[in-house]
Amino acid sequence: MSTINWFPGHMQKARKEIAAVMPQMDVVIEVIDARLPFSSENPLVPGLRGVKPLIKLLNKADLADPEVTALWVTHIERESGVRALPVVGTDPAHIRQLPEVCRSMLSNPDRDMRAMIMGIPNAGKSTVINTLVGRPIAKTGNEAGVTRAQQKIRMGKGVFLTDTPGFLWPKLDPPSCGYRLAITGALKDSAFDYGDVALYAAEYLLEAYPAGLKARYRLDTLPDTDLGLLEAVGVKRGFRVKGGGVDIQRAAALLVNELRAGLLGRVSLETPEMTAREVAAAQAAAEEKARHKAERARMRKLRARKNRR
Asked: Of 53, 121, 153, 212, which is the most buried if we count CB atoms within 10 A?
C-alpha cells in the first residue's frame, strides 16, 4: 500500500494561527466524518487544545452505518472531557443544540463563551456553521480546502465562535487513513490515483457491505477480488474501451463517487477495533524500522573502527 499525503502551505499557516488563539478559547468543537471518525480526527488537536473541553461532531451521520456510529460514540467518550454527537450538518434540529451542549461542559455556563470550531477539509464544518447561525456565513463546497482563513462569528446570547481553516497533518499514518480520507473527498483528487483508492474501497466493501454492492449494481453474485468488482461494475454500466475491454478507470471513479454520495447505502469505513489493529501494526512496523536503522548504524561504526586500525 502506497502512502497518500496532501499538506499545502496554507494548512501549515492555519495550524500556527490556531495555536496562537487557542488560549483564549473555552471549548473546542471538532467536526469529524461519521464514516471515518478515527481517520478524520486530527492528531494535532489534542496538543493544541490541552485540557479544554472538546465536542466531537460526527457529521454526515446519515451516510454512516448507525450501528458502527454507536460504537464510535462509546469509544470516543471514554476520554475525559470529550463528548461525541452524531449529527447531520444541514439539519437545524441537530446543530442548534450545540451552544447548550458547549455550555454544559463549562464550569461557569452563565458567562460569555468562546468556542473554536475545527475540522479537516470537507468534513462539513462550514455547513455546520451556516446551519448554526441560520444564514450562509461560511463558504461551503464539496471539495477539500474551501475555508482558508479564520473568521469570528457572533452568535448571540453571549456565544462567540471562531471558525478556522480545515487542515490536515504532514504524514497520514497508518497509510490506510489516507485511502479512507481520499474516498470521502477530504483530499484533493489530484493527490491520489482513483484506481488505487477504488481498489481499496472495493476490497473493503466486498467484505463489509456486500448487500449494498449487489443492490446498487444489480449483481446476482459478487466477484472474489477488488479488481473483479471494478470489472463487474464497468460491465453493468457499459464502460467499454476499444477492443471490447472494460474501462477500469471509469468504473473506479464511479465506485468512489457513488460511495461518497451514499448511493451504496449507509457505509462506515472503519470501526474502533479495526483502527486499533492498524495503529498497533503501524507502531510495530515503525519499531522494526528503528531497530534496523540502529543496527545499520552500529555496523557502520564497527567497520569504521576496523578501518582506523
From this structure: 121
- Is 251 in contact with 234 (CB distance < 8 Å)? yes
Please name the residue ranges forming H helices in the chain.
9-21, 45-49, 66-76, 92-95, 98-104, 125-133, 175-184, 194-208, 210-217, 226-237, 248-260, 272-308
Grouping H, G, I as helix, E, B as strand and the rest as coil, residue 40 is coil
pLDDT digits (tens, 9 = 90+) for 143-201: 444 444 557 787 767 788 888 776 655 455 677 888 999 999 887 777 678 899 999 99
Phi and psi angles of residue 54, each rounded to the nearest 5 degrees, phi first? -130, 130
The residues, any chain, with a CB within 8 Å of residue 15's CB and separated by 6 or more, are 44, 48, 167
> Residue 80 carries which DSSP code?
T
Instruction: For the chain, give every domain's residue range.
Output: 16-163, 193-260
Q: How far apart are CA 5 and CA 182, in angstroms?
A: 10
What phi, psi does 239 have (nearest 5°)?
Answer: -85, 95
User: For the domain 193-260, what is the CATH code?
Assistant: 1.10.1580.10
CB 138 within 8 A of CB 149: no
3-state secondary structure of 154: strand
Closest CA to 10 of 139, 125, 149, 142: 149
First to last CA, the chain: 45
CATH class given for the domain over 16-163: alpha beta
